[in-house]
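As a warm-up, study this chain.
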Amino acid sequence: MAAHEPTISFSIEDDKEREVKAVLTTVYDALRQKGYNPINQIVGYILSEDPTYITTYNNARSLIRRIDRDELLQLIVKSYLDNA
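Now compare it with the structure written out below.
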């Protein structure tokens, strides 16, 4: 008899969280490299949904606009509370 291989678990939610983290990291780095305060700029974008808070450098503005703002807020709060 062949040994059974363990089942690999797949989670769309985990993939989405990784995608959002990658986007936020890219946006943060682009803002920092252009001399902005990344936290203030990202918060401004989240509160207003005005894309001009995010630089176009390294395609940061286009990347962050791919993420639903409500979903972004949910993941940020979840991450904060999971790490508290």
